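step=encode ok
step=design start
structure_in=
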């Protein structure tokens, strides 16, 4: 009998699985539409009263996306007031949808990555995940590691699609 050799392990490929970077924690959409007069306009006095009396602790430790689903003109300062109240309460606050929140979370994680371990390496960016990894995260990751990697592939180590190969 011949020894079974794990060709993937012996290939020298370095795998990055974005799913393992997924920040744990509840995601919440805070839609301010219900705080508008007739869901059309913001009345400053009423909005400031809501800001003052709202239970902000309900967002403790959560990732919060703040938006307005009504087709209304909302002044920028309204979102700033909400963000100000969530400072020190929520784990992270962004303007936009829950998808925008995911994009921001991954962008921040990727920007903070140390790329030293990918220097002159053949890198596979794992493609399948059970968690919502936005496409933008894959683009951000390529931008981050391409300057240092020897090559970048997408998929699984046993079946990859070439993305980048350094010449020379």
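sequence_out=
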């Amino acid at each position: 009998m011949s020894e079974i050799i794990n060709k993937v392990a012996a290939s020298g490929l370095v795998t990055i699985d974005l799913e393992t970077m997924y920040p744990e924690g509840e995601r919440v959409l805070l839609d301010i539409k219900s705080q508008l007069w007739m869901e059309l306009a913001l009345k400053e006095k009423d909005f400031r009263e809501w800001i003052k009396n709202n239970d902000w602790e309900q967002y403790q430790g959560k990732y919060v996306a703040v938006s307005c689903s009504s087709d209304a003109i909302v002044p920028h300062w309204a979102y700033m007031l909400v963000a100000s109240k969530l400072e020190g309460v929520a784990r992270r606050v962004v303007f936009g949808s829950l998808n925008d929140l995911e994009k921001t979370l991954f962008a921040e994680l990727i920007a903070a990555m140390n790329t030293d371990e990918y220097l002159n390496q053949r890198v596979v960016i794992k493609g399948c995940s059970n968690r919502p990894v936005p496409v933008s995260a894959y683009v951000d990751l390529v931008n981050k590691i391409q300057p240092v990697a020897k090559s970048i592939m997408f998929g699984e180590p046993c079946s990859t699609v070439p993305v980048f190969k350094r010449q020379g």
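step=design ok
step=annotate ok -> Helices lie at 7-10, 44-53, 76-86, 98-111, 135-145.
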